[in-house]
Write a structure and sequence with these properties.
The complex is a heterodimer of chains A (about 170) and B (about 160). By secondary structure, chain A is of the alpha+beta class. The longest helix of chain A has 13 residues. Chain A is globular. With about 160 residues, chain B is of the alpha+beta class. Chain B is built from two helices and ten strands. The longest helix of chain B has 14 residues. In chain B, about 45% of the residues are buried. The chains are: A alpha+beta (about 170), B alpha+beta (about 160). At the A-B interface, strand 3, strand 4, strand 6, helix 3 and helix 4 of A face strand 4 and helix 2 of B.
């Protein structure tokens, strides 16, 4: 089982990849690591921070694994892709790339995870619409309290650098 | 006809209170003003900014809607878990006042739509709020102030 290391504001968390359930997604994510950028807090899906993938790191992956409906839990790491069709509103403050398409790694760090509008908006849930892909590919088994606290601070204090790297055996 | 001024960071906006359709809530709100509190961005409803209020009196349901839209100034009880990761366990919700600055938003409770008291409509400055709120989301949130506006628009 491969492992990932998440580093945020001097704190760390380790996630185990679900190689046996979603091997193609795990391979694709593994192959773009390490990635880093400024993590931003979720607007629709409660206690979640996101790392948007840019440039050559953008992943456009098909759905894989079992369909999940309302079962997001703290510790889940989800690959998320959003179709340009899903971009709504004026989004005056966002880049043109963000306004068209979104490819990200989502870290659910606390309760409620995945709650709110994301949970019951048909266009945001499930894969029936083909407007988005949300694949659970890794899980932080025990979320360090300090890491969760840093995630919560992103909500109030703004962007924070997040690094995601392979956790090799020697690390 | 009462107008209130909403200040968020460098953005200013004005809202017309819904005194005809929400007489009790708007009367209560006017007595509360000015309000200046730490602003928070919704993490469950989309493009909503709000502040938590201290209110010992229970606010009645009035002029409610589950179909919030851009420019709505709303007062409601937000589930506590959406406000703080940890809170006194006997507290289930917090009274908040907030506004919707973009489409693609809807107020949610723990299990679906949440009705909110519509107390006003933002009539000026919504685009300024729609720029300032995402900026604060990236750079950190400051305070939001709601105050009575004078006839010439100042507060």
């Amino acid at each position: 089982m491969r492992k990932l290391l998440f580093e945020l504001g001097g704190t760390r968390a380790v996630a185990e990849m679900h190689d046996d359930v979603v091997p193609k997604t795990c391979d694709a994510v593994w192959n773009v690591l390490p990635v880093e950028g400024m993590a931003i807090h979720a607007n629709w899906s409660s206690r979640e921070i996101m790392l948007h993938l840019h440039g050559e790191n953008i992943l456009r992956l098909p759905p894989e694994g079992p369909v999940r409906r309302g079962t997001t839990a703290p510790g889940d790491i989800v690959y998320f892709w959003r179709s340009p069709q899903m971009s709504r509103g004026k989004q005056l403050a966002y880049s043109s790339q963000f306004q068209r398409e979104l490819s990200e790694l989502a870290v659910f760090y606390g309760d409620p995870a995945g709650g709110g509008l994301a949970a019951d908006d048909p266009a945001r849930s499930g894969r029936d619409s083909n407007l988005q892909v949300a694949t659970l590919f890794a899980t932080i088994i025990d979320i360090p309290k300090e890491f969760a606290q840093k995630c919560e601070e992103v909500r109030h204090n703004g962007l924070q650098r997040l690094v995601v790297r392979r956790l090799e055996r020697s690390a | 006809m009462t107008r209130v001024k909403i200040t968020l960071g460098s953005a200013e906006a004005f809202a017309q209170l819904e005194e005809k359709d929400a007489p009790k809530a708007t009367k209560w709100l006017k007595e509360m003003l000015p309000i200046e509190r730490q602003a928070m961005h919704s993490m469950e409803n989309g493009r909503e900014v709000y502040v938590v209020l201290d209110a010992s009196d229970r606010i009645e349901e009035e002029n409610q809607t589950i179909y919030q839209t851009v420019g709505d100034l709303i007062v409601y009880y937000k589930p506590a878990i959406f406000v703080k990761p940890e809170w006194p366990r006997h507290i289930r919700d917090f009274l908040v006042i907030g506004f919707i600055y973009e489409r693609d938003s809807a107020i949610r409770g723990m299990s679906g739509p949440l009705a909110t008291n519509l107390v006003g409509k933002i009539t000026e400055g919504i685009d300024a709020l729609a720029r300032e709120a995402p900026r604060m989301r990236r750079e950190g949130f400051g305070k939001m102030r709601v105050s009575l506006a004078l006839m010439n628009g100042s507060a």
